[in-house]
Amino acid sequence: MDRVSSQRRDPDALLAVLQEEARRGKLTVFLGATAGVGKTYTMLETAHERRRQGVDVVAGWVETHGRPETEALLQGLPAVPPRTLTYKGRAFREMDLEGILARRPQLVLVDELAHTNVPGSRHAKRYLDVEEILAEGIDVYTTLNIQHLESLNDVVAKITGVAVRETVPDRLLETAYQVHLVDVPPDELLQRLREGKVYLPEVAERAVREFFRPGNLHALRELALRYTAQKVDRQVEAYMRSHAIDGPWPAGERVMVCVSPSPFSAQLIRVGRRMAAGLKAPWLVAYVEQPGKAPGEEERLRISKYLRLAEELGAETVVMTADRVAEELVRLAKRRNVTQIIIGKPLHSRFGDWMRGSLVDRVIRSSEGIRIHVIPGKSEKPANGAAHRGDRPRAARRSFSWDEYGAALGIVAAFTALLHGVAQALGLVNIALVYLFPVLFSAVRWSVGPAAAAAVAGVLAFDFFFVPPVYSFTVADLRYALTFAVFLAVAVLTGRLADRLRRQVETVKRRETQTAALYALSRQMTAVTDLDEIARSIAGQVAESADCEVALFLPDETGKLAIRASSGSDSWLSHSEEAAVAEWVYHHGEPAGRGTQTLREAQAFYLPVRFERQTLGVLGVRFRSESEESGEIPQDRRELLHAFTGLAAAAVARVRLGEQAKMAEVAAESERLRTALLNSITHDLRTPLASMIGSVTSLLEGDEIFTAKDRRELLTTIYHSALRMNRLIANLLDMARIESGMMRLNKKWCDLEDVIGVALSQAEEALKGRDVRLDLPPDIPLVRADDVLLEQVLVNLLGNAAKFSPAGSPVGVGVTVEETVVEVSVTNRGPGIPPEDLDRVFEKFYRSPGTESVTGTGLGLAISKAIIEAHGGRIWAANVPEGTRFAFALPVDRPPGSEVEPKGA
Q1: What is the DSSP string of 416-458?
Q2: Exposure class string for 174-205: b at 16+ Cβ within 10 A, else e
Q3: Is the pTM of this model over 0.70?
Q4: Does residue 673 surpass a pLDDT of 80?
Q5: Element (H, E) at 617
Q6: CA 800 → CA 23, 769, 877, distances in Å?
Q7: Angle of helix 214-242 versus helix 186-194 axis, rounded to 10
């Protein structure tokens, strides 16, 4: 319902969503409080019932745990055999996703939804396998324990003391077609454990002692019942809304969770998810990055991880940059109409609040009516067991470098040696000021740590070498102690400010580089229309901006995905596994590869190039940095890549749409020409055919009636009608030959007077009753041309002149010789051609207004134009005082090795 309502204003998007939902399979989840309640048993019983109803049911993966009752129910159900994967020298059995998709049953059984697949599988998690099965239109039955739900992960850990590592996003249960609660009272479950019906006796005894305690079972059962009740409540509310049933609807609430690089943020996100679900409200997760406190590499990876967790739980994520974190968070909350803010209680001491100020206090003071929830808690321990201090893990802090501290102390020593020689001239005050320079330099060049070391070393050197008594740390005048304290405070403060400035500059440079790259790519995309050039630009810009190797995959003419452009080394692209990942991303429209939960063993990160719900290609990115090669991609890097793919999609779509527009234009022109051709052929074929049929019929039926003269006239009519049809068919064949590129010129030296004479004799019938006036100079040079085709051009022009001029009016034929060309013209006494149509008369099937009644196909002038241009000449029409003049010009050459004398010389 949420997806449909969000697309309500866009009918096409709504239709696409509805079609996608109709194609998807239906997910049924058998939910239990814990293991042993009978989820798998109930699922198998329901599957047998569906099979008796004629449904094609297949067991994709069912874990019996050696229970005889479950194994008995599994008998009789067809199954897809598991596949075997080898990992670290050991063989593991996993569900065969490829086999299930190839089998394509109506319903597949997939046990243990939260299972983590062995590395080498297509997806990292089994629930991702299930989502792909559903996308193929196959229904799925699956099982899940409540402790594996992502939003309840921290709650379950507090109740049971056991951290559950395998979790499933809440959206799977929220979008499930049905959720069946399989419930067993705790006492009955404990009895089953003692009887060995859940685990083997030795395992059951340890499970009862460590996990299956009555208190745990009661709490988990309550969580399962509450979650199922909320699901039913949402379904009832959706039903009432869809059927316009009046009822008390919940007020519009919106929840915002504030996160930071602290490991405590994961707990805040889960709390926000539960609160939003309880309020039936949308929610968002916000992170504010301070330019002066840019996060380190590990902190960026941690933030990226938390934001991905929020997106998996259904939140909208917002990343901002601001100096004042509290003010920016409250400003965002007011802009987005947030009613409740969730923020974590600081893990540092009150002394830290006194030194740095309390973020929570500032948010509360400026909230103005927004409810603030301050959540206490402990940070999650990192995998390596490193301790944490304050809100920032030690591992995420800037790496310690003795070289930087040594360099800072060395600068102080150099300044001390330099100042020692000029101490009397400078005075103590100026010497103290000079010692600020190493502090500022260290802060700008390195960080606050070396700057603080330089400040302390500067105070000590100043006291030892310059303050009386010299060469001793003893201070004769106690007023110098205040001087030292002020100097140290000023040095540390200026060092911190310089360090913050350096971080701001680094942040601005990084973002300026990204913005410049996006701007440069967008400019290139708008200026280039060639798809290959666009692909090369995309690959080059992404590789340069993201410091990676890039490959852009686009479908070829056959629809097969192929590499269109790449940058850097192509060795990683030669692996068939990489091409398979790109194919998967192209067909499913979702990211995959390194840094994702799908096909994560790939060397590169693959993103779909999507435009308006259509996948146009795939962008493959292989990172060079160790952190990104290890699998984690920072959020800002992901956002940059998504921005690049958005630009790439728009550019590729623009080129494709341009090609489609050209094809549509060609199709429209072809349709117009087809219609004109049919109209022309219909008229010009039926007219001579009617004359021929009438004449032949008369001869057959009235042979004794007609005299010899009458029969001759009828036969002459048949003859001229046949000639007219022959000209029509010849014109059609000539145009087809020209457009197919099959016309070949048989050039030789031609005498234009002979060509004109042959053309006049061929057009004798069309020129009958007309005076042909020749204007031929005596020095017409030979031209190198195909004389037969030139004769055809002149015949077409003479016939055109006769058809579009009054009967009996003269027709003029002239030749003009210039230095490099010879011009041949045909003039008639017709009404002329509108100026805007002088060029269009050479188009196929074109007729000037008012000439529709004149017979002809409209191909003669088009054929003449093609012939003249094939000779390297040009042809044109012009209005002259006496009528219309058609002319063509051919280049003049000389026969090699000879000089042609003018005629009549």
Answers
A1: HHHHHTTHHHH-HHHHHHHTHHHHHHHHHHT-HHHHHHHHHHH
A2: ebbeebbbbbbebeebbebbeeebbbeeeebe
A3: no
A4: no
A5: strand 614-623
A6: 63, 15, 12
A7: 130
